[in-house]
Amino acid sequence: MSLNNSSNVFLDSAPSNTNRFQVNVINEGHESSAAADNSDPPHYEETSFGDEAQTRFRISFRPGKQECYDNFLQNGETTKTDASFHVYDSHTNTYYLQTFGHNTMDAVPKIEYYRNTGSLSGPKANRPSILEIHEQLAKNVAVAPGSTDRVANGDGMPGDEQAENKEEEDKSGAVKFGWVKGVLVRCMLNIWGVMLFIRLSWIVGEAGIGLGVIIIGLSVVVTTLTGISMSAICTNGVVRGGGAYYLISRSLGPEFGGSIGLIFAFANAVAVAMYVVGFAETVVDLLKESDSMMVDPTNDIRIIGSITVVILLGISVAGMEWEAKAQVILLIILLIAIANFFIGTVIPSNNEKKSRGFFNYQASIFAENFGPSFTKGEGFFSVFAIFFPAATGILAGANISGDLEDPQDAIPRGTMLAIFITTVAYIGVAICVGACVVRDATGNMNDTIISGMNCNGSAACGLGYDFSRCQHEPCQYGLMNNFQVMSMVSGFGPLITAGIFSATLSSALASLVSAPKVFQALCKDNIYKALQFFAKGYGKNNEPLRGYVLTFVIAMAFILIAELNTIAPIISNFFLASYALINFSCFHASYAKSPGWRPAYGIYNMWVSLFGAVLCCAVMFVINWWAAVITYIIEFFLYIYVTYKKPDVNWGSSTQALSYVSALDNALELTTVEDHVKNFRPQCIVLTGGPMTRPALLDITHAFTKNSGLCICCEVFVGPRKLCVKEMNSGMAKKQAWLIKNKIKAFYAAVAADCFRDGVRSLLQASGLGRMKPNTLVIGYKRNWRKAQLTEIENYVGIIHDAFDFEIGVVIVRISQGFDISQVLQVQDELEKLEQERLALEATIKDNESEEGGGGIRGLFKKAGKLNITKPTSKKDSSINTVQSMHVGEFNQKLVEASTQFKKKQGKGTIDVWWLFDDGGLTLLIPYILTLRKKWKDCKLRIYVGGKVNRIEEEKIAMASLLSKFRIKFAEIHVIGDINMKPNKESWKVFEEMIEPYRLHESCKDLTTAEKLKRETPWKITDAELEAIKEKSYRQVRLNELLQEHSRAANLIVLSLPVARKGSISDWLYMAWLEILTKNLPPVLLVRGNHKNVLTFYS
């Protein structure tokens, strides 16, 4: 069937009401679909297709959906109405769109193309690939069975991902919060925590109004800088659940995120204890006043705290909706309590309140309280350490990012507004309480100034009260002594008590919700596999019930400490470490200059973020240096652990971006430096094909390039370009992943070419970057050269010539069994498929049994079946040894053993170096590097060189001197004086028999016949060629005899590679040389450098 490509085939009918963005669906065949009712059908050239047109469209229908395709025409043409058009139908190879008034598969920009699979905000769509647009249209357009389902499900998403999407759809009823209820309310409640009512008056008493405002200001500077950095990160992409952990991990990578995630979740769990203890302290004070103590103050705090945290746990477990309602009620109470305090400051004080130190606004009290008056053991930073946890509430909204409608908008707006409002409140309360209440008061209304008494100059003395005895004995009232000052000052005391309850319980509730949410996000990412148990969520909001229980246990443990001043500094350091990393994340992302860093929140600066990070670290050490050290030790340990485990995640972190920038800068800087012989290292192109198919060749090369040189595993795809490019592109990532998984420090590169030699030539010329270019070609010995076709031999020898032409060294490796284990891998793949089919069958049987037996555990079996089907049953990629468990008859056992021989420790033995020709030193350098490796370190170097019979000792001394100058350790030196002797007759006979099928024997024929044979078979070995280089052939055969004699027991032989002069030595004769030279020997490396120095004895 031919396809008519005339210019009018795909013309539009130009409907009258078409706008610029009209999209119509038509079939991809050369016939047109039925046009819309308001347009004329386009005209086509007549073409006869016979009966084939009736059957070439094969459509499979989903159950109940056949009516969507009722308008298929009887002549084989297809059309779809708008009613049956599915959002994904334009992304298959069957249909294409009419866009901008033209028929094309090109799709207009849509958000669906940019979503991740399993996105919460909607389904992912796949745009047509470049191949679908670039390649010719198919002559026959067929829809394979089931393809309609595939299209409807999002263009072939994997089954697990479909399940995830379905799960998300089921959770569409989940409660989502806006910026006020979700962020602003939570942050304000958490910041207005226990410190506002219980400790702020004490802080003003210790530090004074001036330093107290500075303490508040310093805290606000830290939180504001962190809030700005957090806002920038939040607006640089979709934010999901996990709060600070999510922001840090997606910015700096799993190493930083995983380490700080645990610390941050733990800090929130401890914060629950801090707030509950604050609440319990207030209740105990009330019990003291009413003389209703249960045991003693400390144990009463423990009892009340334990009961409280159990109640809070019940509210949290009830769900986010109930928790949010509770937060709104608590905020109203809190606002009323704060307003009540400010009202109370202007209500005239009575004698009882005056005896307790409250005198309304007085300039003398303000002046007296403006400066610091630290008690024993307290200082600026110790007081700051007590106050700072009050500022940690800025992450309360971010911590439930997964429950926000629009985290990108809600987090910056709600957090920054909450910081501003709470800062104003804190400063206002600090100044007001400092201007109204004296530091020390007795509470005795009789301690008044009697006329004639000397006034001690204090503000209270000037106002008629004598509190001087507080200097000698402890008093119960005043800013320094009474934690319930705000209750005393307020207009209605019980409202302050309600405010304290509200502030402490709301903060505790927020932390109790935050810790499990952050911990669940951390566990879902599977960074710590042992914690996967806590990743499970329940209900429509995916509540982390297991995390709630864990947080409850941690909180209970710290509640038993029952000392607020002990708990506060501990979590201060944990939160500061989190803040430091949030600031550093913003700086790092900006510094990496990644094009993907485009935050919508523009009010940030990378250097300000860096200053914020440094400030957080400095404050950590100032608050409590030993706690800061412990925090960083824990973080460093977790960082090392995550780095070692290398979780299989890719979040496009700024660490990756900066690694790229650093690598690029280093590569460019390297180009400005001239190469020096002291820095020479083998940088190899290894012709492995797929790296897993010739593991031994890769292993021996990796042995002398690991951590020192470049190694590129190369594959040449030969054949039709279209098929080769498709196969090449599809396998690139998989093969590079195999190298990474097997801890082989190498790159994978592939080319598509018309012939093998052209492909290798391209690799030799174009591989590498700047100074990091290959200087050595490593290839396996062609064992089947006698059975190979002429073009294969020409290509094989040709690439050696090409390498020398490009001044690249050559290493040919030969082992007895050969390198290619692709047949073994094919057998293993087949066995794996059979095993997966067996598991799938078992899963199906289990599903059927569970359906018959009852639906209670059906879902569990289905899930287990899916996991078993998708999980690989073997680890081919990690080790070739796994195939040894197969039946011996299905693969060559010796071949498999040979393929792993360079993975094993070699043990005590020798590496015999036959340095016959000076190639610049590569023949000597490679074995020396091998002896530095762990697997080869027990092998000694034995050096063999050629020499004259009458000068053996002198040449041995000269070689020893040269090696000592090169600082290369050796065990023995042997000077072979009989290299140029003729080989024995048996060996020469073997060589002659080897080349016999490839000889021309022109001397035995008449001149005409001989010339004809030369023209017909120019590749054959002529008698003239054989005679001209007979001495060289003798040498190769003789060398094999010497190798058999001296190096038969060596672990490895490194031998100078003979060079075939172009135009003088035929390809078959050269292959015979290599064959006879390395026949019946241990593993051999035939090495020839590019005759430029790679060794030097100069410093």
TrEMBL record:
Protein name: Solute carrier family 12 member 1
Annotated Amino acid permease N-terminal domain residues: 89-156
Catalytic reactions on record: K(+)(out) + 2 chloride(out) + Na(+)(out) = K(+)(in) + 2 chloride(in) + Na(+)(in)
Species this chain originates from: Myotis myotis
Chain intervals for the UniProt region annotation (Disordered): 31-52, 146-169
Subcellular location: Cell membrane
Membrane spanning stretches: 179-198, 210-239, 259-280, 301-320, 326-347, 379-398, 418-438, 545-564, 570-591, 603-627
Protein's membrane topology: Multi-pass membrane protein
Keywords: Cell membrane, Chloride, Coiled coil, Glycoprotein, Ion transport, Membrane, Phosphoprotein, Potassium, Potassium transport, Sodium, Sodium transport, Symport, Transmembrane, Transmembrane helix, Transport
Gene Ontology biological process terms, A to Z: cell volume homeostasis; chloride ion homeostasis; potassium ion homeostasis; potassium ion import across plasma membrane; sodium ion homeostasis
Coiled-coil stretches: 824-851
Main location per the UniProt record: membrane
One Pfam assignment: AA_permease
